[in-house]
Design a protein that fits this description.
binds S-adenosylmethionine, transferase, seven-stranded mixed sheet, Rossmann fold, single chain, alpha/beta, SAM-dependent methyltransferase
Length: 261
Amino acid sequence: MGRRAVGSAASRRASRHWWDADAASYQAEHGRFLGDADFVWCPEGLTESSAGLLGDVTGRRVLEVGCGAASCSRWLARQGAYPVAFDLSAGMLGEARAAAGRTGTRVPLVQADAEALPFADRSFDVAATAFGAVPFVADPGAVMREVYRVLRPGGRWVFAVTHPMRWIFLDDPGERGLVAVHSYFDRTPYVEYDERGVPTYVEHHRTLGDRVRDLVSAGFTLTDVVEPEWPDGHEQLWGQWSPLRGRLFPGTAIFVAHRPD
Ligand SMILES: C[S@@+](CC[C@H](N)C(=O)[O-])C[C@H]1O[C@@H](n2cnc3c(N)ncnc32)[C@H](O)[C@@H]1O
């Protein structure tokens, strides 16, 4: 593992292989926490039913970006929305199909890349994602432009990502993860690679300012950045997310933006 430049195509290849291979174990580890038909925004446990970041979704056409097993879309369907869920990984979409069978709640599933969406202009009222696609693409500006294109004027885009300040720490939920070791300003992606040097996992960093600029350059109006606090009594770890760190600094940033009318 290390830090080195990786472009869009190599990031896409790495993500597709990684999430295909990891789909079953990701669901085994996190599926219970995420629920079969629930909308959980982040490891802090903030749910859409308590946060209401998407507004009233009844009758709305909602695009779930990087949906994984699509639990958010099944929750949305149960609220009376018309979700479409897409993901790069066939393995993750397989988990979504399995969950549809378990729950009896079926939503349209599409295999697609967030940098080039196969949807018509102005075809959704809302787009949303909990940690899907955005942290894994080399060109998040392209994702912002594509989401803007497929939203109708007045539409809303809400996405959760790892809080940019986490980049400065080791990926460790314990004491070692409290010490700043990396520059916040170094955008070189985090890469794991195989013995031939081919990237197998890539995560791309953007500062808070970069995220705002990507949104505004695409045409969005930013209305909020939510930084969920770690709730008292919540003891569950998720990778580097832990109560120890969560009590001291944010782990998630949720950007709320609108396409102007
Ligand atoms: C951390 S998972 C989040 C999934 C789901 N939202 C959840 O909360 O479990 C990240 C997801 O983003 C997807 N992804 C990564 N790069 C993508 C891309 N370029 N386009 C679409 N999906 C992508 C992965 O396949 C994976 O399912």
